[in-house]
Amino acid sequence: MFPEVIDNFVTEDNPVRVIDVFVDQLDLLSLGFESVTAKQTGRPGYHPATMLKLYIYGYLNRIQSSRRLEKETHRNVELMWLLERLRPDFKTIADFRKDNGKGIKNVCRKFVDLCRQINMFDDSAFAIDGSKFKAVNNKAKNYTPSKVQFHIDHVESSIQDYLSQMNTNDNDEKDTSSSVSASKLAWYKQRLLELKALEKEVNEHPDKQVSQTDPDARLMKTHHMERQVCYNVQSAVDTKHHLIVAHDIVMTTDRGQLAVVAKQVQQALDKKNITVIADKGYFSRTDIKATQDLGVTASIPQSDTSGSKKKGIFNKSLFKYDKHKDVYICPADEELPHRRNVTDSGLELKVYVNHIACRDCAIRAKCTRSQNEPRKMKRWIYEDDIDVMQKRLDDNPSLSVLRKQTVEHPFGTIKMWMGATHFLMKRKKNVSIEMSLHVLAYNLKRMMTIKGTIGLMEAMRQ
User: In whole angstroms, how far apart are CA 107 and each of 37, 53, 192, 260?
Assistant: First the structure.
């Protein structure tokens, strides 16, 4: 005879209760959310806690669209319980995400801090990698200098063809195709003006690239060497529980990002002595040195970029370095002593060469193609640190497998949640908000798998 109580439809171990407990124990004002305290006058808006619960639930259940979230508030029993039957419209939902980026990012960091407090990152190494996520920008709306020039050449050629056609048709009064050609010619001339303006914009851009739909997105090579307009998402994942400890959005390649991400991990864990693993795309001597100066133990494999094999001469790896004598031993067992230092691409290098031994060497033809110059070895002044790192990798070949097993899975999971379109918002600022919500949802679901929903709620209340 009594109406059903909506609480009866939500079991005690339902994940929606975890969201409720987590958000209720947050200090939203200190985290940077707007309108936490309602004004004295006017009708109060929706509380940030209500909207945050809605978004966390949406990203946990692969519902990122504000319009779809609005529909769910009308028919989803779990959301009715979580929001206490409140039904914000899609514009209010979308504006909350757009206007509270700082607070959302801080909530993502707060959850990582919660995981740290319950000792989830003890004795863990951290795998770092980047992955390309599609932006809201079609490749056709992205322009580089070569692409703009191609379109200009095509339009100019078409204009010349139409002018020639119109001159031919002028002699035939019965031919009505000239009017059609004239309108088409006018369109081509207008298009040429647009392309000329675009060419100037592209050439003046620092990256020599312009994306018309999302100006911050960049054309990059993906895993299969295809080119897509996207963002490069950096992440650091702990090898023990596969939780995302830190993430970032960049518009460049992975090279040069190692120290930046490692420092973010240190700040998230409030710990200096950490170990990071990355692939060869992160190998940069200056970046590795900067990472080690932070107190981080880095393991990044070195790729062989030497062209010696193609030239048919001895590779640098065949020259053995003697640390005690500070000399290189060449394949002919001759010593190449240190002669001088040079600076190349910002690196201070030591040059090793033996003019006399190289001049009279019987296998000189296999060592260098130059008839006058001897074979030289160059060594970075901090190369000993790289050698120690390489030895650590050689002694632990399983590190590369561990990295793949750790960091690739979260990327694949989040992309599956996103669907084919990946990001829904434009500009780097908004895209970073979206990514923070995805990372928060991933970590939350991961912790529920590890601790269980009831166990996680108990840990949150402590």
Answer: 18, 11, 49, 21
Rounded-to-integer distance, Cα 305 and Cα 297, Å: 24
b (16+ CB within 10 A) / e for 337-350: eeeeeeeeeeeebb
pLDDT in tens, 325-364: 999 999 889 899 999 999 988 889 999 999 888 888 888 8
* Confidence (pTM): 0.89
3-state secondary structure 231-256: EEEEEEEECCCCCEEEEEEECCCCCC
* Residues paired with 275 in a beta bridge: 297
CA distances from 7 to 3, 71, 87, 139 (A): 12, 21, 18, 49
Please state, in angstroms and as integers, the Cα–Cα distance from residue 420 to each residue in 57, 127, 251, following that order: 20, 26, 20
Token pair 């669907």: residue: 419
Question: Helix 15-24 and helix 453-461: axis angle, to 10°?
Answer: 10
Quick: pLDDT tens for 94-128: 999 999 999 999 999 999 999 999 999 987 799 99
* Residues in contact with 147: Cβ distance below 8 Å, sequence separation at least 6, in sequence order: none
